[in-house]
């Protein structure tokens, strides 16, 4: 079965510091990987997906098939980045398999 | 435009009762998904509709859970003989079409509490 692992429940960084939210997946095929974000009192929304190769709000994520990872990175954290981040994947079906999430806390 | 809406936002019920949770997807979206999120966990897939039919119901935990989408738009998740373990936030999402690569747009969720 597919599995997505986010090892950190909480990541606390200072404003302006680099951010890396870790995500590992287990799937023998070629999954599509996503990062979803949930800001305080808002609904879950897509941040970025691997296939688009895009940078959203300064965040990027690179798929490393050798390490089966899709870590989310940003060079300089901002206060408004504080949120809950979920890594997710699809395999052969369009349902999403989510990790348990990492809460990013950006402090001054 | 209007996003995915879910009603009610909160539902408190007693063990053994029947509940219905409603999802209104974005107009024109043919794919609709239900997820369940327990405290401290990520959303967990329940069922996926493509149009009116359930394309994948592999996530429904047991036969107390059932979902319908009779006209290919609004969907209702039905839970019979609720148990305390059913307490969670139930999320609905929709997508223009199904598929591996498409963004899913989520609703605000229904928080179900079973006493």
Low-confidence stretches of chain B: none
Q: Tell me, rounded to a whole number, the average pLDDT of chain B.
A: 95
- Kindly name the structural category of chain A: mainly beta
- Label the overall shape of chain A: globular
Sheet bearing the most strands of chain A, described?
A: 6 strands, mixed
Biggest β-sheet of chain B: count, sense, barrel? 7 strands, mixed
Overall mean pLDDT of chain A stands at 93
Backbone shape of chain B:
globular
Radius of gyration of chain B: 13 Å
Helical amount of chain B: under 10%
Quaternary organisation: heterodimer
Tally of DSSP β-strands of chain A: 11
State the largest interface: A-B, 25 and 28 residues
The ordered H/E elements of chain A are EEEEEEEEEEE
Low-confidence stretches of chain A: none
Strand content of chain A: 35-45%
Count of DSSP-assigned helices of chain B? 0
* Helix-strand makeup class of chain B: mainly beta
Count of helical segments of chain A? Answer: 0
Query: How many whole angstroms does the radius of gyration of chain A measure?
Result: 13 Å
What fraction strand of chain B? over 45%
Quick structural overview:
The complex is a heterodimer of chains A (108) and B (115). With 108 residues, chain A is mostly beta strands.
Topology:
The complex is a heterodimer of chains A (108) and B (115).
Chain A: E1 3-5, E2 10-14, E3 19-21, E4 24-26, E5 32-38, E6 45-49, E7 60-61, E8 72-74, E9 83-90, E10 97-98, E11 102-107
Chain B: E1 5-7, E2 10-13, E3 19-24, E4 31-37, E5 44-50, E6 53-56, E7 65-68, E8 75-79, E9 88-95, E10 105-106, E11 110-114
Parallel strand pairs in B: 2-11
Antiparallel strand pairs in B: 1-3, 3-8, 4-5, 4-9, 5-6, 7-8, 9-10, 9-11
């Amino acid at each position: 079965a597919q599995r997505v692992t986010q090892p950190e429940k909480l990541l606390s960084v200072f404003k302006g510091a680099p951010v890396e939210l870790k995500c590992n997946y287990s799937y023998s095929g070629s999954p599509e990987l996503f990062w979803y974000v949930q800001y305080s009192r808002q609904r879950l929304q897509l941040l970025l997906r691997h296939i688009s190769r895009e940078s959203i709000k300064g965040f990027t994520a690179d798929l490393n098939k050798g390490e089966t990872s899709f870590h989310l990175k940003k060079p300089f954290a901002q206060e408004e980045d504080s949120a809950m981040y979920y890594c997710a994947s699809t395999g052969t079906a369009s349902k999403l398999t989510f990790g348990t999430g990492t809460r990013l806390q950006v402090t001054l | 435009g209007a996003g995915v809406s879910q009603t009610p936002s909160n539902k408190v019920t007693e063990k053994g009762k029947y509940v219905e949770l409603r999802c209104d997807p974005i107009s024109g979206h043919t794919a609709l998904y239900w997820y369940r999120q327990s405290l401290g966990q990520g959303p967990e897939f329940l069922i996926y509709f493509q149009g009116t039919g359930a394309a994948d119901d592999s996530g429904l935990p047991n036969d107390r859970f059932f979902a319908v989408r009779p006209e290919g738009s609004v969907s209702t998740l039905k839970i019979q003989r609720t148990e305390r373990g059913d307490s969670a936030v139930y999320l609905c999402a929709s997508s223009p079409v199904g598929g591996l690569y498409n963004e899913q747009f989520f609703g605000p969720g229904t928080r179900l509490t079973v006493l």
